[in-house]
Design brief:
With about 140 residues, the protein is mainly β. It contains no helices and 11 strands. The strands form 3 sheets. It has a 4-stranded antiparallel beta sheet, with no helix packed on it. A 4-stranded antiparallel beta sheet has the order 5-6-7-8, with no helix packed on it. A 3-stranded antiparallel beta sheet has the order 9-10-11, with no helix packed on it. The chain is globular and about 40 Å long. The N and C termini lie far apart (about 35 Å).
């Protein structure tokens, strides 16, 4: 169910859509929450399963025993991008419907090892911080 919003900066990241809604990660709980601008819960989705739309499945890195979503970002079309400790970047609707896995585990172009942050520039290019691969990857819109 939906729970009240309580920010713990060590465990959450935030993103905002054009309507002012807030999206936050809950790494240990394996979910994303959508709240209105006053903090009222509107939707929540996800779990720490290994399947499509899930944020679990332990990383191959021994030093990373954590599960869950780490990064959240809202694109110009209002879609929700989530990077997780399972080394995947996945795309969702604002209501939490899983759309696709954009990238998976690895060291090659378009692959990740602990995607930790996402941003865009004025041209719509997407940047993903690929923490354990020690790089930032850039993708065309």
């Amino acid at each position: 169910g939906l729970e009240p919003f309580n920010v713990d900066a060590k465990k959450r990241q935030l993103a905002f859509d054009r309507q002012g809604n807030i999206y936050t990660t809950e790494a240990s709980g394996g979910r994303i929450q959508r709240l209105d601008r006053t903090g009222k819960p509107l939707a929540a989705w996800g779990d720490n399963s290994a399947g499509p739309g899930g944020f679990g499945g332990r990383s191959k890195e021994v030093r990373n025993p954590l599960l869950g979503p780490i990064a959240v970002w809202v694109d110009r079309l209002g879609r929700i991008w989530v990077g997780a400790t399972n080394n995947r970047v996945q795309l969702f609707t604002p209501e939490g419907k899983f759309l696709l896995t954009a990238a998976g585990d690895g060291t090659g172009p378009g692959q990740f090892h602990l995607p930790h942050g996402m941003a865009t520039d004025s041209k719509g290019n997407i940047y993903v911080s690929d923490a354990s691969n020690q790089r930032i990857q850039k993708f065309a819109p």
